[in-house]
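Morning run. Coffee first, then this:
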Amino acid sequence: MNEFLAMGGYAAYVWPSYALAFILLVANIVAPMLQRKKTVTEIARKLRRARNEQK
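And here it is:
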């Protein structure tokens, strides 16, 4: 197991690369979710404002 974790002496390059890839994958999932929530909230606010102006 230690040999696998050492990655043949390249662990200092391999594991940070895996970590960076994982962080980017998570960011690619989370960022659109946050943007969607922001957009839906903004649209709902605009619709409420439009309804209040019609009354």
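The radius of gyration is 23 Å. Good start to the day.
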